[in-house]
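Notes, Module 5: Reading structure tokens.

Key idea: the token line is not a picture. It is a compressed description, and you learn to read it the same way you learned to read a sequence, by spotting repeated patterns. We will look at two proteins. The first is printed below with its tokens.
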Amino acid sequence: MSQWPQADWRRQIYRASRLDEFLLYLSGTQYDGETEYTAEDFVKRLTSFEESPKMAAGTAVHAVIEHSLLGELPESVTQNGWHVYFELDAEISLPPAREIPLFREHNGIPLFGRVDAIDAHTIHDIKTTAAIDVERYLDSYQWRAYLWMSGRSSFVYDILKVKLDEERREVTVQEYTPLKVSAYPDMARDVEMLLEDYHACIRALGIDDIMAGRKAA
């Protein structure tokens, strides 16, 4: 199992998407809603990384869309070793500024992110999923954190329903649903409070020591 690059461990531990993982851990159950989410699971999830086929396929779809011109998608293309098929009649228009890093600190606690696309007012984030669950994205803190870090006022999830064939290394995009959310008055404090709790948990579980120790080794 490969590990996060030593020099970048804070960028990986303090990513905006980790806040949603933290909330899942606090709920006590994993994504299936049945399996217990233990502290050991949480530490392992944050301190090690192994790219699953689902993640690799999602990365390939991301790359195709991010390099598309004027939102026009090909019927099929090979990307990152995956055969990507678009079986939908839709255009996904993204701002020209893409793959932009974000960073902000709160009380000395860092938070990092990387947006798929951004303009003066809006952030876009591409998501691939086997089933579109709008409520899950609405409840997410990733969009709140990205708006907090960037100072933008609106956020669009470009959600793609995909079908995966791991053996053939094929991923088929079947449906596109854009979901727009906006900043709200108490959003900054909500993000800051969760970030404080997350940081306290990282220290209590010794995750910072684990990662710092790897860097020193």
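Here is the second protein, with the sequence above and the tokens below, as before.
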Amino acid sequence: MNSRQALIAAALCFSLTCCAQETSIPPLKSEPHHHLVLHNSYVNVYSVEVEPHDAVQLHKHEADAIGIMLSDSEITVHAPGKPDSHQNVINGQLRLQSLGYVHSTSIDGDAPYRNVTVELLAPQGSPRNLCAAVIASQPVHCPESASQPNADSTREPQFQTNETEVALIRILSKQSATLDAAVFPQLLVVLDDVRIASGAGPGKNWRAGEFLWRDTNAPAQVFTSDSANAVRLVAFSFKKEKAAK
């Protein structure tokens, strides 16, 4: 074998080895701390809880996903071929984990790591921060008129793509706000305990980490803060109508 043939063989071997390593990385759905709690044609929603000093195992994202933190945590993110990233993440923080992203996460602090991960099943296109740094490497583009306050609540856009808009809704302390029937389907993720009523009656208490799917033209619902603080909801609105099964 001459030197050129040897070089080609080495390159082919390296390519096959990398391919084998890539295909051996499990997808998000197989990571044991991610528990699937909702699946339809728009999203997979996972509930995640990891004990202190444990770790989210190495996995690959097969779709764009947004992680919504439910706790303050000290973590180290390990991505093959990149330096470790030590981070302090906070309750309510949104983070984009893009299609193809491979990583594991060590929980360094003494508090459990809790989040809801929303996997966006349609190709998204043109991701853009609005009033939150959901993509850590990009600036925010928060218009002056972004927040929509009224007497009982505020709504602030956080992030958008060609397919999806994400907003943060705050129900003010001891106030009730009505969410009318959605123009497009919505996913609401609860960050703070809130009472939700449809029609007459006191409604039901929803806990942090629970979520609500709202189809287009679903009945209006009343969201009430019984707390001394505002309560937060993360609202995903999906711009295109399709069957959600």
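Summary for the second protein:
- Residues 4-21 have pLDDT under 50 and may be disordered.
- Residues 42 and 230 are 29 Å apart (CA to CA).
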